[in-house]
Design a protein that fits this description.
about 300 residues, single chain, alpha/beta, 13 helices, about 15% strand, eight-stranded parallel barrel
Length: about 300
């Protein structure tokens, strides 16, 4: 393992989480990645779903289009390929782009319909890591080892990320969750929460966009269980979610308000915050990049003070 401190130095305090890149053309995605790099964000996190771009191929496209940007899988599902295939893919990218690829792994969602072990995600991921630890890859490797982080919302998975990987990547969490995770991980492990944002001060517009994002996740059992464990009530979880929960999970408002939420995660112990811009239906990548442009100067100034 590279170690959490080295990984934190590689990616810097602020990156971007952008699942939408999997839904647009390769040319558009490459242009977006170059823009994100020019704006000064340290890493670009991409997800994986059964209906969109294969995540390692996608990472290769984005790495080839940029010069310095770190690309991280957030996450590559363990049901999409066996551990040997994942290791071979990760090492190939790591050797081709030294220090610029991060392997994020997770058990994903039972609703995705991949794999037979969603009733035992902890065991399945632990066994996956057992195979990775044998280092089956025999091709050329970079001197800069490929870091591994685990998707980890619950304590046992966080401890697995601390003990068997370089750290954890969390999603759909308020800063209070980040503080609890940091306490559990200790100072050494890497911690990178995702933070959904809407840069719009209009509460009707912003909450509408935020609510669409949150309500889509309320159909996934592991997120509901996570939110219940964090302390949200059945009233919060009913329908499309309470305003309180929406506001906790999605930072909305002007750029300064959104930046304050990012700083709250950093102050709570995050090493890196993956900013996840949200826009209304039909807006497209231009709207996402517009939000990232608005945030970039404020974020750079804010993290310099952190």
């Amino acid at each position: 393992m590279t170690g959490g401190r080295e990984l934190a130095a590689r990616v810097g305090p602020v990156g971007v989480w952008l699942a939408a890149l999997a839904e647009i053309s390769a040319d558009q995605a490459r242009d977006a990645a170059r823009t994100i790099e020019r704006l000064g964000y340290g890493a670009l996190w991409i997800g994986e779903s059964p209906a969109h771009k294969e995540v390692f191929t996608h990472a290769g496209l984005l790495l080839a289009a940029t010069k310095r940007l770190v690309v991280a899988t957030g996450i590559a599902t363990i049901w999409g390929r066996d551990a040997v295939a994942a290791d071979c893919a990760a090492q190939t990218l790591g050797e081709a782009y030294p220090g610029r690829f991060v392997l994020g792994l997770g058990a994903s969602h039972a609703e995705a319909g991949r794999g037979q072990g969603h009733d035992r995600p902890f065991t399945a991921l632990r066994e996956y890591l057992d195979v990775l630890d044998t280092r089956p890859y025999r091709g050329p490797v970079s001197e800069a080892a490929v870091p591994t982080v685990l998707a980890a919302l619950r304590p046992r998975m966080q401890e697995l990320g601390r003990d068997r990987a370089d750290g954890v990547h969390t999603f759909f969490v308020p800063p209070s969750h980040t503080a609890a995770v940091r306490e559990r991980l200790g100072p050494g492990a890497f911690l990178a929460p995702e933070q959904a944002v809407v840069v719009d001060p209009d509460p009707v517009v912003a909450r509408g966009i935020a609510r669409a994002h949150v309500s889509s996740r309320l159909r996934l059992r592991n997120y509901v269980a996570h939110l219940e464990a964090v302390g949200y009530t059945q009233a919060d979880l009913a329908g499309s979610g309470s305003d309180r929960m929406i506001d906790d999970l999605v930072a909305w408002g002007d750029a300064d308000t959104v930046v304050a939420r990012v700083r709250a995660h950093l102050d709570a112990g995050a090493d890196h915050v993956a900013v996840h811009p949200l826009v209304g239906a039909g807006t497209g990548p231009a709207g996402l990049l517009s939000q990232l442009r608005q945030l970039a100067p404020n974020l750079i100034r804010a993290v310099a003070q952190n």
